[in-house]
Amino acid sequence: MTTIPAPKFRRLSSALPFWLSLALLPITWITAVYGGWTLVLLPMTTWYLFSVLDYFTGLNLDNADPETAEADLFWYRAITLIWAPLQIGTLFALLWYLARTDHLAWWEEVLLMGGFGIVSGTVGINYAHELMHQKPKSERWLADILLASVLYSHFRSEHLLVHHRYVGTPRDPVTARYNEQFWRFFRRVLPACYVSAFKAERAMLARKGRPWTDLSNPFFRYWTLQAAFLLAAVLLAGWWGLVLFAYQALVAITQLELVNYVEHYGLTRKHLGGGKYEHVLPRHSWNAAHRASNWLLINLQRHSDHHYKPNRRFPLLQTYDEHDAPQLPYGYPVMTMVAVVPRLWRRMMNPRVDAWRARYYPEIEDWGPYKRGTNPMPR
């Protein structure tokens, strides 16, 4: 691995590959205008094109200097800042357009909004994830707006207050268990994440001597933003517009939880006794160094480092080799497609989880409590 010097980050050319996601917006409009076979363009671009590009571009094992100054990252931050207004503007414009044209059949409109849900889930929620970890309030607000547009605002509370603290333990809903099928995981995490997020915020307020009804509870902001989006959908496109809006949100949420499923499948932190667990290390997340899909996902696949250093901006995230972190065989686009086929997923990933356990925790003889999630809750 080599270290990229800081001056390179000041150039727009070095950041441009991460701007490829912008091409998804004109593709969305091609689909809206022409319908028919063009309805496959969005899933083909996000799931398949970047998988093919991964094959030809290979792995990126270079690491940035983690001490690179914030000012040097302008062109990298810019894409995350402009995406929110572009996505929201496109979403509302689509609903307005579909309500005033009749060249698409109802099922074509559903497929179109499902395709846009892939965009708002693959790109939008991912950018919200980057923004919610940053200090400026303006960036956290953009994250809230993006999450509200897919009716998943509580993800911010759950991710920051629960997932990062309890990853790899029974208290983290989105650490997928060994042999847990995705669709079972999906049914489990939808209510579990909402409840855990609300409880985490309520507990924070209680420590300050305030009730959950205190207006500083971010859930009031979440509910208000989501209600505003639902109302806007109805005003722009009627009740059918509300159905289309909700469907794109469902597809986006499914995309997010597919990624959550892949990121930590079968990886658990060692229980030290008495509800104490080892600290989070790079070994507790699957790492993927595939170049092209990391362009699309702004280095989300360097997830081992993200959990190790959560506040690092995406261009500074480090990649690890197999000595420090477990490696996925393919990038997220391929892995999420495999994840919905349980037998194929188990055949691909269970041997890797078994090898991870033997490599890092040879002293653990009984993995039953880890597999079933029955270890004591962390203190």
Automatic annotation (TrEMBL):
Membrane topology summary: Multi-pass membrane protein
Its keywords, alphabetically, are: Cell inner membrane, Cell membrane, Iron, Membrane, Metal-binding, Monooxygenase, Oxidoreductase, Transmembrane, Transmembrane helix
Give the CC-aspect GO terms. plasma membrane
Q: Where in the cell is it found?
A: Cell inner membrane
The answer, when asked if Glycoprotein is one of the entry's keywords, is no
Give the main location: membrane
User: What domain of life does the UniProt record list for this protein's source?
Assistant: Bacteria
Segments forming domain Fatty acid desaturase:
107-336
Where, by residue number, does the polypeptide cross the bilayer? 12-34, 40-61, 73-98, 110-129, 222-247
From its record, what is one biological process in GO terms?
A: lipid metabolic process
Protein's UniProt keywords contain Transmembrane helix: yes
Q: Name one GO molecular function term.
A: metal ion binding
Task: Write down a Pfam family by its short name.
Answer: FA_desaturase
Q: Which family is annotated?
A: Belongs to the fatty acid desaturase type 1 family. AlkB subfamily.
Q: What is this protein called?
A: Alkane 1-monooxygenase
The source organism is: Thalassorhabdomicrobium marinisediminis
